[in-house]
Specification:
The structure is a single chain. The relative contact order is 0.15. 10% of the residues lie in helices and 34% in strands. It contains 6 helices and 28 strands. The strands form 7 sheets. The chain has a 5-stranded mixed beta sheet, with no helix packed on it. The protein is mainly beta.
Length: 440
């Protein structure tokens, strides 16, 4: 049996738009993968590094450059960290995009022989795609995985425990406070519940237990925790008022004021999230202000900020409730992996047949959403839909928007208002010595 074939489908923001060029449109687009297919992706905001059967390749607007001899990548908008068997190096972004890795790198570290953990982990510590490029981990922390957020980091321990440290002003560490931590600290609320995955967004965090339960904590300004967001409630109310216009002649039924509702801006402890129909989660990834999960049944759910269509629901609406991506269901695509980058999220799916997915290279036009893709999460689908035997793989991308376009004003619950205001004013002394953003 032939190995599954991987390729890319992309929603929304593109590398062409990042370069100031006209974008190809918001519809799903399949990117060329070549006969060798694509195995893994490491996205930055303006470019992406992919692993094919012949090695690594960096792709930006209209450019593709091979990076021969390298096995893994960790990109940012300033540097690209690369790793191979005996060493890890950091190169300026411009040199990497030209494929001109000549001369002295910005950083180099020899690696001892032995088993390898995925980047950012390195023997004895972890890499960051900006100076100082390497930070040692305390000897007592045995890391299996490590995730970098904008101001914080998470470690999944070898025994399934979770550690968090770095900036904590948005509750993203899960320790129940808004304080920062200079060293990895056990997330005690999750102690005794073995985890299989952790993810770090811009200012929020997630973990998945071995039983398939999803835990979320941190900032919820755009609904990225799937908890009630005041900002989204106000946005929905404004849209409803604008839509009503002069046609609304009768007074509407009085609704509770936004200030009286139970909104959550900061969740400083891990909160167990119940997904629709009690589905179990296998994979999770976080963008700057949105979250995506893959269920054990092969479905994709997304929520949070959706201004650029990054949630995959065929619109630009944000959501503080998990919504299933109906496009995949309608096309018979089974999700396997999800990877969120600073402005892009990629989903690896199994394709039931060669004609089931929109092929932009065949039509020359962006793909469009079928009407079935707009059904509600509880819609009963025809028998067997999405159950066909897998025959190939696709990587599907959903774009997400600006990292630094945010405001926390008026979003903190009353009980935490004073404490949060005080912490937000405090300088983050010493944090950049070991935590550098994976986002641009």
């Amino acid at each position: 049996m032939a190995a599954p074939r991987r390729t890319w489908l992309v929603f929304g923001f593109s590398t062409e738009e990042a370069a100031g060029e006209p974008g190809p449109g918001p519809g799903p687009r399949r990117l060329e993968s070549g006969p060798e297919g694509i195995r893994r992706v490491w996205p930055a905001w303006s470019y992406v590094v992919v692993e094919t059967g012949t090695g690594l390749e960096v792709r930006s607007a209209g450019l593709r450059r091979r990076l021969p001899g390298w096995a893994e990548a960790l990109p940012s908008e300033t540097h690209l960290v690369l790793r191979r068997a005996a060493e890890a190096q950091a190169w300026p972004r411009a040199a990497a995009l030209r494929g001109a890795l000549r001369g002295a790198p910005a950083w180099n570290r020899a690696l001892p022989p032995g088993p390898r953990r995925p980047l950012p982990l390195l023997p004895g510590g972890f890499a960051t795609p900006r100076p100082p490029f390497f930070t040692a981990l305390p000897g007592g922390v045995r890391a299996r995985r490590l995730a970098l957020g904008y101001e914080h980091a998470l470690v999944l321990g070898t025994d399934g425990e979770a550690f968090a440290w770095g900036g904590g002003r948005h509750g993203q560490l899960g320790h129940g406070t808004l304080e920062s931590e200079l060293q990895p600290r056990l997330v005690e609320a999750l102690a005794g519940v073995p985890m299989q995955a952790v993810a770090a967004g811009g200012w929020h965090s997630a973990s998945v237990s071995e039983a398939g339960d999803l835990y979320m904590w941190g900032w919820n300004e755009s609904g990225q925790l799937a908890l009630p967001s005041k900002a989204l409630a106000e946005e929905r109310a404004q849209n409803e008022d604008m839509g009503a216009g002069d046609a609304e002649l009768m007074p509407r039924q009085e609704q509770p004021a936004a200030e009286d509702a139970a909104f959550i801006s900061i969740q400083a402890f891990p909160a167990l999230l119940d997904l629709p129909q009690d589905v179990e989660v296998s994979k999770v990834s976080c963008g700057s202000r949105h979250t995506a999960v893959v269920t054990r049944g092969g479905e994709l759910y997304t929520w949070g900020w959706g201004k650029y269509g990054q949630l995959g629901h065929g619109d630009n609406a944000s959501s503080d409730q998990p919504r299933r991506v109906e496009y995949l269901v309608a096309e018979g695509l089974r999700a396997e992996e999800v990877v969120c980058g600073p402005w892009t999220t990629y989903i690896c799916v199994l394709e039931p047949g060669p004609q089931s997915a929109c092929r932009e290279e065949d039509t020359g036009k962006p793909c469009s959403y079928p009407p079935a893709a707009r059904t509600s999460p509880g819609t009963t689908l025809p028998s067997g839909m999405g159950q066909a035997a897998p025959q190939g793989r696709i990587w599907l991308g959903l774009a997400h928007g600006e990292l630094n376009s945010h405001s926390g004003a008026g979003l903190v619950p009353d009980a935490a208002q004073a404490a949060a205001a005080q912490v937000l004013k405090q300088p983050r002394k010493g944090l950049n010595a070991f935590i550098t953003p994976a986002f641009p």
